[in-house]
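Collaboration report, partner site 2.

Our partner group contributed sequences for two proteins of shared interest, and the home lab folded both. The records are reproduced in the order in which they were received, starting with the first partner submission.
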Amino acid sequence: MSGDCCRLPPVQAEYTAKGTYTTIGDLKTYAVGPEDAKIAVVIVYDIFGFSPQATQGADLLASQGYRVLLPDFLLGKYADGAMFAPGGEEKRAKFFSAFPGAISTQYEPLAKFVQSIREPGTFEKVAAVGCCWGYKVVAGSNKNAGVDAIIGTSPSFAAPEDAENINVPLLLLPSGGEDMEVMSAIIKSVDQKNPGKNFLKHYSDMPHGWMAARGDLSGGKATDAYADGYNVVAKFIKDTF
């Protein structure tokens, strides 16, 4: 699947987000795109929260006419780069010992959030994008929280049995850090339910999280891959709906 038909704005290293912060279903939410859009895209960010890469990615998708919503499921308690630098082991261990986003605790918040945006009757379709740990939240959330399509980028904690809960079109964009046998098994199983509507694109030379907070937007191959990833997501949503 190519993203050539979608024309997203150029990715920028120095970037000012175009959206605004509001409250939806008791959650602080970054919102961007036309309010009268018929398609909503809900993004479950990675453990670094409202990173510049996450908000720019939301803006890129919103440029295609979608209403894009980035809820604060971690309630302001994010990881930071220092945790993963030399000497950050203690800080990292402390963060994960009390991680506010344990996957099983996020199923209900995601389902409630999706329900809250559907209630006004505005959106005809809702797609959910899960970045890293967010993939597992989306894949396992109450039969996908009633969403109409799922996208997983750098899918963390993926397992073949994830397919049991996925009954809608699925796009997986694994990095070089994911198990491709697992990725292929998930796609194969889901494709038996929705033949021809599921896609897998492997970014084998990209690090885990390249479309989220670990994305390098300073130029070069990594920036091109970030842009291509969002282009593929945009085309998947367009083709699916």
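Second partner submission, folded after the first:
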Amino acid sequence: MQPIAQLEGRFNEIDGRYVIVVGRFNHHVVDSLVEGAVDALVRHGVDDANIDILHVPGAWELPLAVKRALTRIQPDAVIALGAVIRGGTPHFEHVAGQCNAALNRLQLDFDTPIANGVLTVNSIEQAIERAGTKAGNKGFEAAMAAMEMVSLLRQLGGNDDFEDDAADHGGVA
């Protein structure tokens, strides 16, 4: 019996272009997420010159800026950062849900990792915890996920390889 093949991302094969798209709303929390993301990238050897940071008003605007970055900059990965804090209206559900759904759709459509570091929390205290105190820094974690996915996808080969393989086997890519 053959062993099961296993692949995972490695953090020594992550060189490339990264775009961090940041929602400014709740900037007192989000600024720490950005610092964490940049720290993770630089610590793992990504050159400052290969990191772009785009600022948008809030989480609602993130998907459009991510789409434009994917089209124009063509990064190896995008890191989306923001904070949506529940209030007394259903606005939270609409913004958080639509932002998450759009980011996921873009990731699949562009075949490019989009690390979702958009906090969706019930209180400002929870947001602060996730921006570098008790619960770690979710910006750092999102950057780590982006780098891991870049490495993993490189090991799996590009989309062109997949389309060629599918055609060779009579399948549809």
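Feedback sent to the partner group on the second submission included the following. The longest strand covers residues 77-85. The chain has six helices and four strands.
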